[in-house]
Specification:
The structure is a homodimer. The first copy, chain A, folds into three domains: about 1-115, DNA Polymerase III, subunit A, domain 2 (DNA Polymerase III, Chain A, domain 2), CATH 3.10.150.10; about 125-245, DNA Polymerase III, Chain A, domain 2; about 250-360, DNA Polymerase III, Chain A, domain 2 (Roll), CATH 3.10.150. Helices cover about 15% and strands about 40% of the residues of chain A. The first copy, chain A, is built from six helices and 27 strands. The first copy, chain A, has helices at about 5-15, 70-80, 130-140, 195-205, 260-270, 320-330; strands spanning about 1-5, 30-35, 40-45, 50-55, 60-65, 65-70, 85-90, 95-100, 105-110, 110, 125-130, 155-160, 165-170, 175-180, 190-195, 215-220, 220-225, 230-235, 255-260, 280-285, 290-295, 300-305, 310, 315-320, 335-340, 345-350, 355-360. In chain A, a hairpin with a 4-residue loop joins strand 2 and strand 3 (about 40-45). The interface of A and B includes residues 73 and 302 of A. Strand 9 of chain A pairs antiparallel with strand 21 of chain B, so a sheet runs across the interface. Chains A, B: Belongs to the beta sliding clamp family. Chains A, B: This is Beta sliding clamp. Chains A, B: InterPro entries: DNA_clamp_sf (IPR046938), DNA_polIII_beta (IPR001001), DNA_polIII_beta_C (IPR022635), DNA_polIII_beta_cen (IPR022637), DNA_polIII_beta_N (IPR022634).
Chain lengths: ~375, ~375
């Protein structure tokens, strides 16, 4: 194999597919990037058997062939080359030379046919959203997946297609995050549970451009994201996702409108007094026009008042401050609305059209403390 | 005590003195910042017994007094306050309230008289350099102090005043870094060994402005840096520093002029093939007009050629690539000159006036490898 392409194209391509290279594995072929120039295009692929990414890069094929190269070293070498054309050439013994201007690297490759290609997916159906939307939706929900594997389904996100709407849901037992977006075409209803890791990696690759589209297709076992020159294939998580609709209620006894930044900054300051792992709640006292926030720990105490617009009853309620911070951080609105029932019922932060809903369970606290 | 000052003044002051707060200590008073408002100025002090820093901040003293507060929490709280006036008030039981707009923190302080004040230094003599110069000189030498305590003197830097020149020297057994600057006044010859930690912390505080001066005074046990509203006092290291002059030679058989950036980038690329802890040398082959650099490891091999301007003999010599990189990174010149004798003798990188000298010992290598 002998190919020529620019350093910048190569860096971009390797950086995209490297997201599917496992950080730990016993199979050294999985640590490789496959450079496939057996046809008329130069295609890079990485595949950890759960998540696979391929991307096509521009360049010239002088001699067809393919080679698998250690992803980490290949990526580091390419990144440090001068900004010029890069020639990659392999010989029969899989020795690979990488030449750029006067620099010449020589490393061993592995045979390309040992590499696991991406599975070929029979696409049942597909939807289309902008790169911007997909990236935003992931950012606004991914924080509330569970990080432990004790319940596998909680480590993924529900992608639910219903009535030409896409609803993305994550939950971890203490809170639920929901984002809803309208689809532009008629599609059959469908529920998929996408691994959180896939979504985290894909959101790093997405350009975030509003004009650029992502085609999302799926079978019962796989989901495929196609955008720019890149294809991301991921297994789905098996099993039935949690029934969340029965947890969502539109009843409330207290409704609070509040400046988001003021609330966020205040809770952020309060967490200074809480050491990692310490479960001190922030106590919120909702009165007429004023919300008082209090926290008390071994380190000290803090209280602060914020002006609010309230409808309904007064309420004293406690929360894990981190959960409030996580939700408030990803909301772009200047003002947010909180819906509450009582000190034992969940708090809902949502907009009027319910394009986002954040459900947060309260925590018990000692009112005298 | 009751004082009022702006958030930004407080943040700046706390950030300066926090450099002298030890990260680990069994004496909890050392983890504190002392706020001293017993006179007409508000003075912050931290002191780990080796290094002490005090800085005066602008503000209003409403009630005189002093208090010692945990530096970490105080600094975090102050940083997250709204950008407004901050009122700090203590009561008889050392409870300290920090109020800023509607936010109110309450933490316990410690009595100020438990705090170790900075030692009062009888200044024998002093020199003056600009903040820019001191910061640069530290940056250009600090990388070659030894990080282990096996030889205490190697963890510091020699400040040698001689013939109205200040020479700053560091060495670690494999290399020596020297920077020389002219002083603007007549001063007595003197040798001081300043702890590396002191220099690292002080260079973080220095503004780096060329117009702003640092006054450096010293006794046989202490060195004092005074600049802006800040005083840094450090113990000196005891003992006689290494005799370096006999290691410096102006003889050479090979002299090479080379573009610094090309050389640095080439060595930087070569180190990709060297894993942490692996001691593979970079082998440099100096010929007429061309210098060839080669490295070979288990991962692969690399070679590259750079155009040079050579006087004297050809030479094949090996170096630890890290040592070359460290020196080249801190040199600001576009071209550098290397002076070499043979494959066993040190290489000198220096400018014509010897304002900087970097001595690097070569390493043995297998020429056949």
């Amino acid at each position: 194999m002998k190919i020529v392409c620019t350093k910048s194209n190569l860096v971009k391509g390797v950086s995209i597919v490297s997201k599917a290279v496992p950080s730990k594995t016993t199979m050294s072929i999985l640590e490789c990037v496959l450079i496939d120039a057996t046809t008329d295009i130069i295609r890079l692929t990485a595949n950890d058997m759960e998540l696979g990414i391929q991307t096509d890069i521009e360049g010239e094929i002088i001699e067809r062939g393919m080679i698998a190269i250690d992803a980490k070293f290949f990526s580091e070498i390419v990144r440090k080359l001068p900004d010029s054309d890069v020639i990659i050439e392999t010989d029969e013994s899989l020795q690979t030379t990488i030449v750029c201007e006067k620099a010449k690297f020589n490393i061993s490759g592995k045979p390309g046919d040992e590499f696991s290609y991406l599975p070929i997916i029979e696409k049942d159906e597909s939807i289309e959203v902008s790169q911007f939307t997909l990236k935003e939706v992931i950012r606004q929900t991914i924080f509330s997946i569970a990080d432990s594997d004790s319940n596998k389904l909680m480590t993924g996100e529900l992608f639910e297609i219903k009535n030409n709407m896409l609803r993305v849901v994550s939950l971890d037992g203490h809170r639920i995050s929901i984002r809803k977006i309208a689809l532009n075409a008629d599609v059959t209803d469908k529920k998929l549970v996408v691994p959180g890791k896939t979504l985290i990696e894909i959101s790093k690759i997405l350009s975030g451009e509003a004009e650029s589209k992502v085609n999302i297709s799926y079978t019962s076992n796989h989901i495929v994201f196609e955008f720019d020159n890149t294809v991301v294939v991921s297994r789905l998580l098996e099993g039935e996702y949690f029934k969340i609709d029965q947890m969502l209620s539109s009843d409330y006894d207290t409704k609070v409108r509040i400046n988001k930044k003021e609330l966020l900054n205040c809770i952020d300051r309060a967490t200074l007094l809480v050491k990692e792992g310490d479960k001190k709640p922030i106590i919120i006292n909702i009165g007429d026009e004023i919300m008082e926030l209090k926290i008390k720990s071994q380190i000290g105490s803090m209280n602060e008042e914020i002006m609010i617009n309230k409808e309904g009853k007064d309420l004293l309620i406690g929360f894990n401050p981190k959960f409030l911070i996580d939700a408030l951080r990803v909301i772009d609105d200047e003002e947010v609305t909180l819906y509450l029932m009582n000190a034992k019922a969940p708090c809902f932060i949502k907009d009027d059209n319910e394009t986002y809903i954040y459900l947060i369970l309260p925590v018990n606290f000692n009112a005298a403390g």
